[in-house]
Design brief:
Length: 91
């Protein structure tokens, strides 16, 4: 008997499933060269995000006077579903 459990791909996986990470002529929002421009995604905790690139791509939400930046398009709807949960992770 084998145990072939495969992790479900996240919205931000670095495989070809994620167009932002795959290249495809699109900007990779997971990296930046400016240190003060970096933050982390509140949904995919630990994923670095360039604030400037995320803002230009519309990958952000404003919640209770704070702006939250996302590493991919899938994170915005997840944040919308429970903003309090994800905002607390950034505190």
């Amino acid at each position: 008997m084998t145990n072939n459990t495969e992790a479900a791909p996240s919205c931000c996986s670095t495989s070809a499933i994620n167009p932002a990470a795959a290249g495809n002529g699109r900007e990779n929002l997971l990296t930046s060269t400016a240190g003060d421009d970096l933050t982390t995604c509140p949904v995919m905790v630990g994923n670095p995000v360039s604030k400037k690139a995320a803002e230009a791509a519309g990958l952000y939400r404003d919640h209770e006077g704070e702006r939250y930046f996302f590493c991919c398009a899938g994170c915005g709807p997840a944040f919308d579903a429970d903003p309090e949960k994800y905002a607390a992770q950034m505190a």
